[in-house]
Sequence to fold (306 residues):
Amino acid sequence: MKADIIKKLKSENKALNDEKLSEDLGIFDTTIQQHIRELQDLGYHISETDKGYHLTNEPDVLFPWEFEKRESHIHYFSEVNSTMDVARNMAKDDCPHFTVIIAESQTKGRGRLKRKWISEEGGLYFTIVLRPDMPITLVHMVNFCASLSLAKILQNHFSLNAKVKWPNDVLVDDKKISGLLSEMEADDNGIYFVNIGIGINVNNDPALEEPNATSLKKLLGKDVLRKTILSLFLDEFENSLNLSNVNKIMIQWKKYTMTLGKEVRIVTSRETTEGTAIDVDESGALILKLEDGSLKKIIYGDCFVR
Ligand code: ATP
Fold:
């Protein structure tokens, strides 16, 4: 019902009294007053005048009803261990394709290899459950598509110098603004789910703990609505996944990357390799040109630009 009241106040864009709300939404006046108080507690500035209730702000909230056409697929939590854990359980319970799990903060946010992802309030933390209809050999494209989509919206809507770093971080002016992580379950019948987890530094600033991090607020000098970023991202990502074929994603990713052409060091648990990053092949592997001129294919690893 709160969602209906907010939608009504937004769509009418004028003061609405108890009577009008009660009639339009089919509930008692007293219930409306109770819901209005609760909405005010959630951050909505709702002024009360002789003419009725008027919504006077656009709070930075991520409740499902803020994403109108996606409302039924969005699940919001104020705090979780990790959106990846919640998503895994939901995926196993057969939640639909493109279910999105959002958390205001995570107590155990994680990156690749169980590294910690700082998840303080003000950032944007979400996981998307996907059930892509593609061969398992192409599933890495989903990761490339996600980091590409984020870099695109940061460039196109916020004029930021956003670039993707192999395999899938997003950096602005060489500082990390976002990390992406994926988990998958598949068998002989194909992919059961691929979960893409994304942390974006929006109105938070993790730089004290993580000096190589940046945030939208820091870069733009003002707060940014997280729901705007999330809406833009989900639209861009969904369109790219639907419309693009694999080649298109890779061609575009190469235009948005800061890794190719750079001298890099790749560190894995087994070895360290140095060379020039010259390409990414169709499997997502990085192709390095080594000092002796030979080529080496790197499937995974930590990439440091020298
Ligand atoms: P790299 O940054 O070298 O590519 P990675 O790919 O393993 O490492 P992720 O898995 O995306 O990185 O994220 C984990 C790492 O990101 C942590 O080890 C830490 O260095 C860094 N980090 C953690 N929290 C944040 C944050 N909020 N913003 C930016 N960087 C962070």
In short: Residues 188 and 225 are 42 Å apart (CA to CA). The helical segments are 2-12, 18-25, 29-41, 83-92, 140-158, 216-220, 226-243, 246-256. The chain is about 30% helix and 30% strand.
